[in-house]
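A reminder before we start the practical. When you read a complex entry, don't treat the lines as separate problems. The point of joint prediction is that each chain is placed relative to the others, so the output describes one connected object in space. Small molecules and nucleic acid strands, if listed, are placed in the same frame. In the example below there are two entries. Take a minute to note the order of the lines before looking further.
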Amino acid sequence: MKLYQLTISQAKEGLEKKKFSVKELVASCLEQIKKLNPKLNAFITVCEKEALSEARQADKKLHNSQFTIHNSPLFGIPIAAKDLFCTKGIRTTAGSKVLENYIPVYDATVIRKLKEAGAIIIGKTNCDAWAHGSSGENSDFGPTKNPFDETRVPGGSSSGPAVAVATGMSLAATGTDTGGSIRQPAAFCGVVGLKPTYGRVSRFGVVAMASSLDCMGHFTKDVKDAALVLKVIAGKDEKDATSSPMPVVDYLNLLEKPSKNFKVGLPKEYFIKGLEKKIEKRILKIVRLLEKRGIKIKEVSLPHTKYALSTYYIIQPAEVSSNLARYDGTRYGLPRENFGAEAKRRIMLGTYTLSAGYYEAYYLKAMKVRTLIRKDFENVFKEVDLLITPVAPTLPFKLGEKVNDPLQMYLSDILTIPASLAGIPGLSLPVGKIDNLPAGAQILGPQFGEEEIFQLARIIEKETNEK
Amino acid sequence: MKKNSKFQIPNSKKNPKSLPIRQAGKFQNSKLDEEEVGHIAKLARLKLTGEEVKMFCSQLSEVLEYMKVLNEVEAKGVEPTAQVTDLENVFREDEVSPSLEPNEALSCAPAREGNFFKTGVVLEK
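Here is the predicted structure of the whole assembly.
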C-alpha cells in the first residue's frame, strides 16, 4: 500500500510507530498531484515548497522525545483546502478570475484550527467559481474531471476537494456546502462528505456564497476520519456570530457506541420520478441490510420537499447578489467585468427577486416556505432518529451535458437542498459502484445530530465494505 | 429602493424607470424582456453584452417560471425564516485586540495613496 492511500487514522498510526516520516507522507501525496493533476485539474494552487518545509519541521518535532502526537490530532496530515478558504500568504481565488490575484493576509478559522491540530495544507483546490454550480464546470480555471471516468463531471461545487481525496492527492479536504456542494461531489467521487449543522463550524474567512445557508465541512476516505476532522474544526468562534455555543463532542470516540437502536426514516418524497432506478435499488438494498441488523425502518413524509428547489433558488441568489456586491476591485481583486456567466446569472436573479415590487412575491414567500420545510424535518424527527435518502438523482453526468441549461443543472441538487434550507446536518456515504461509477447514500439528522449520523454511517460502512 | 430615500445611488436620477410593480404575493407573467434585464443589470452594477442580455432573458424567465410552483403553497400567517440558528443577540466583550496592520490591509489594493485605498471618482461636483 502506498502512503497516499492511507486514511488519516492509518497515517497517524504509521507516523506514531515511525514506520515512515511526515515528509514521506507529504511527498507521496505531492507525487499523486504531479501524476494526476494535469489530467484531472483538481488543484488551482499546489503548496509544494511550503508543505515540504512544514513536513521537515514536523519530522524534527516527531523525533523530540518531549513531543506527544496525541495533542495534535492531525499531526503531519496533508489536507487540501477548497479555494474558498482564506489561507494566509497563499492565493485564494474562489475559482473566479475576480480573485485571481488575491492573497489573503489571514487564515479562515477552519484553516487556523487545522494547522493548530498539526495538519499541513498541501494546496488549494478547484471548484465552481464562488461555489456556484453542481459540476465543477463553472470554474474560471477549467473544469475538474471525474477520476472514475474523465468524460464525466466530479460534481460540484467542491469538485477539486472530492477528486483530491478520491485519488489520494490529499488525505482529507475542506469543502463548503450551501445546497449540496459537499454531499453531491462526495457521491460522484466515492468519498465521505459531511455537511455539518449550520453554525457547527465557523464560516469566518471563507468566501461567502449565501450566508444563511453556507456550511463548512469536509471530505475524507472513511467515516472515522470525518468524525475526527469535525471535532477539530467545530465550535463557537467569536468571529462568526452564527457559530453555535453547543458543546463539541468526541465524535470519533462515540463512533462505535450508539446510545440506542436507531429508528431510520425513508422519506417518500425523495424516491421521485427522475431518480435513476439503479440508485433507488442500491439505497433500498442498504435499507434491507439495516433491517436485518435490527434497525427499525419507517416510511415517512416531508410534504413540502417539492417546493425546496424553488425556495432555494430565490433565497440563495438573493444572498449571493448581496454578498457579491462587495467585489468592486477597489480593495482587492479585479473589477466586476470579470464575473463569469453563472455568477452574473445569480446576481441578476437575486437582484430581481429583491427589487421593489417583487420582494414580497418571491423573497418573503420563499422565507415562509422555508419555515414549512424546516417544520417538516422537525416533525419527522419526532418519529425517527435519522433519514436515509439518495444524494443525487443521477450518477455522475457527462461534461458539457447540463452546462448550458441552468435549470437542469439546478435540479441536480434537488435531494440535498431541503436539508440546507433547514440547517440540518447531512453526510454522503459511498455505497459502491453502479455501472463502474460511484454512488452515494445521504444520511440526514436533526440539528446537531452529527454524532448519530456518524454512528449510522459507520454501521453501513462496516456492512457494505468491511473497513 | 424606497421612493423617498434621501440617498440616491449614483446615476439613479438618469434612470428613474423602475420595474413595473406586479400584484404583490403572486407571480404572474414571469417572462423578462430585454429592457427589464438591462435595468436589473444596472441595479447590480453589471455590464452585459447584447448577447448576454438575450441569454439572460430566456434563462432567467425559465427559472422564474419554475418558481411559480410556490403559488400552490398556502403560507398565510407563517413566520418567515431568515436564519436557522435560533440564536439571538449574540454579544461579545468589547475588548481592544490586535488587528491588521495598514500595510497588510492594503497589500492587495490595486492602487493606494498613503494608508488609503485609491478609488475612482464616485460623486462628481
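Discuss with your neighbour: Chain B touches chain A through 56 residues (CB under 8 Å). What might explain this?
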